Amino acid sequence: MEVLIIGIGGGSASGKSTLAQILKSSFRDEVSILRLDYYYHDKKYFSVPEEKINFDHPDAFEIGLLCEHLQKLRQGKGVNRPVYSFKTNSRLDEYKEVKPSRIIIVEGILTLYYQKLRDFFDLKIYVDTDNDIRLLRRITRDIKERGRTLKSVKEQYLATVKPMHEQFVEPSKSKADIIIPHGGLNEIANDLLIEKIKGHLLKNKGV
Q1: Residue 87 has what pLDDT?
Q2: Number of Cα atoms under 13 Å in the Cβ half of residue 98
Q3: Under a CB-based contact definition with an 8 Å cutoff, are residues 12 and 55 in contact?
Q4: Each residue's pLDDT tens digit, 52-94
Q5: For FRET with 202, which of 43, 45, 154, 176 sits at 20 to 30 Å CA-CA?
Q6: Based on the number of CB atoms within 10 Å of its own CB, is 2 exposed (0-12), middle (13-18) or buried (19 or more)?
Q7: DSSP secondary structure string, 22-79?
Q8: pLDDT 10s digits, 132-142
Q9: pTM, full prediction
Q10: What is the Cα–Cα distance from 95 to 100, expressed in whole angstroms?
């Protein structure tokens, strides 16, 4: 089975997950999604107190394990990916099966940062959204879904999210094949991307 691996990068709350879900809805069972967030190291991995952990730094993720999983999926083998809790900053003692499929999507803030990850990607996408919009989305998401307070979201944004975005995430835009403005809400760009993927799938079917 010919596998198409797509990397989607971009700032926090830029619309990466929305775009991944749009592609999932378009191609259904032909798509498996791996989020970089699944591969956060457990808080015990870090040598600093929990409140000092920089979750937006490249070292916060276990990229070696993600690469192992991509290699297996490319070979048509299923994997058991980690389950991570944002409420406790811990990996849970459970796994979720990811089955091999024709399209594998990897999405996360630093997806395009790591050379070893980029080497897997057939298509690299950067989702580009205004900083103010991203911040508002992040506040809403972290309070509703991750049990955070407004104060903690603000402090984390100023301490690590914003500076790490400027140092690592934003520069990774230059590695993208396609840059999509306005997140997953750009219908024209989304439609063009879907057509490109359809063309790739047809080509590899010999049509």
Answers
A1: 87
A2: 26
A3: no
A4: 999 999 999 999 999 999 999 999 999 999 999 988 999 999 9
A5: 176
A6: exposed
A7: HHHHHHGGGEEEEEGGGGBPPGGGSSS-GGG--TTSGGGB-HHHHHHHHHHHHTT--E
A8: 889 999 899 98
A9: 0.92
A10: 16
Among candidates 174, 181, 179, 178, which has minimal Cα distance to 129?
Answer: 181
Phi then psi for residue 193, to 5 deg, are -65, -45
User: Contact, 29 vs 101, CB < 8 A?
Assistant: yes
Q: Kindly state the average pLDDT of the residues 19-35.
A: 94
Please name every residue paired with 4 in a beta bridge, in sequence order, or none if there are none: 103
Q: pLDDT above 90 covers what percent of the chain?
A: 75
Residue 207's pLDDT band, with cuts at 50, 70 and 90, is: very low
- Looking at domain 4-203, its CATH architecture is 3-Layer(aba) Sandwich (3.40)
Angle at Cα 50 formed by Cα 18 and Cα 147, nearest 5°?
45
Per-residue confidence (pLDDT) for residue 110, from 0 to 100: 98
Partners of 32 in the β-ladder? 104
Residues whose CB falls within 8 Å of the CB of residue 199, separated by 6 or more in sequence, listed in order: none
Domain parsing of the chain, residue ranges: 4-203
